[in-house]
User: Fold this.
Amino acid sequence: MNPLKDILESCVDFSCVHECSDIKLFISATNVETGRVKIFDSHHLTADMVMASACLPHMFQAVVIDGVPYWDGGYMGNPSLFPFHHQADAADILVVQINPIERKGIPTTPMEIQNRMNEINFNSSLIQELRAIDFVARLLEEGRIDTQQYRQEYIHIIENQEALRPLGASSKLNAEWAFLTHLRDIGRESAALWLERHFDDSQVRWKDVEQLQMLATQSTDAEHFLADLTLDPPVASGNQAGDPLKDEDFLILSTVHSAKGQEWNSVFLLNVVDGSFPSEFATGDDRLIEEERRLLYVAATRAKDHLHLLVPLKFYVPQQQRYGAKHVYGAQSRFMTAPVLATCERRFYGESQSRNQIGEAVAQLDLPSKISELW
Assistant:
C-alpha cells in the first residue's frame, strides 16, 4: 500500500483526463521484466500508471499493472520523446532538464557515487534520443531519407545547471514547502531567461503569465478560476502599445467574469439593480447570492480611477409598439447598502439643477390645482 496513491486519486479526476483531447499526455514507466519503456497515454491513464512512472525500486515495491511489474520511467525514458514524432503535429519539443548532465570532479563518498550513477542512468535515455534526432536531421539535410516519412525535429532545452548542481542527493527527498517553492522560483527564473534569450517580445509574453497568476489568486479555487477563464477568455495576448486605433479601442465591452483588478482607468457597470445584481436566477439560494455579491465586487475592482455604477430608473416593456412608453421601475441592487452608498457620489441622468433646487421646485408645486386643470 502506498499512501501517495490515495492522495493522487483525491486530487486528480482521471475521468476528466480521459476526456481531454486538447492536451496529449504521455507518461513512461520501465517494464521490470523486459527492461523496455512503456508509454501510457492520457486516454487510459490511471493512478497506478502515474505511481509506476515514479516508482524508485529502492524506495517502493514495483507497481503491477495487468500482471506486469513497472519501475520509474526515468530508467528508459526521461523523458520519452518518440511519442511526439508520430502523435503530435508540432515539430518543436521543449525539454525541461532537471538532472545535471555534467558534474565536474570525482565523487568519493558512497552517497556522492550513488547520486552520480543515478544522474548518468537517468540521463542516458534522453541523450540516446537526442543523438537519434540529430542523426535523422543530418540524413534529411543530405537527402538520404524520405521527407514524407521523416521530419525535422527542433529540440529546445530549459536548464539551470548552476542552481541545481550544488543540490545533493538528499535534496531529492526534501519535501519541505520552503524548498519546493525555492525550486519553483528557480524554474520560473530559468524559463524567463530562456524566453528572453530566444524571443524579442519575451517580456510582454511573460506579463501574460503574470496576469494569469494574478487572476488565479483572485479565485477561491481552481474550479472558479477555470470557469471564469472559460466564460470570458482573452481574445489575444497582451502587447506593448503601438499606433492608436481610435475607431477600434474607443470602447471595450466585457463581462464581470474576466476580472484582472484595476485594469482600466474608467469602468461603467450597467444595470446595478435587483435582477441583474443579484441575478434573478440566484434568488432563493444564499450560496448563489454570495456568489453574485462576489461578482459585483470583482466587477467594481476593475476600475483604476473612475467607477460608474449605473442604476436604471425604468425598464421599458418589450414587444410594444414603436416609441411605446410601457415600463416598470428598477429596484436598486440589494448590495448597494447604506455604507456602500455613503462612499459614492450620486448623480442623475440629465441633471441640470442642484438637488436643493429640485427640492425647492417640488415644494412649490400646487398639485391639486394642476389636477383640477386637467378636468
In short: The chain has a mean pLDDT of 83. Strands lie at 26-31, 37-41, 63-65, 68-72, 92-96, 154-158, 264-269, 303-309, 314-316, 327-329. The longest strand covers residues 303-309. The chain has two domains: 3-172, 264-363.
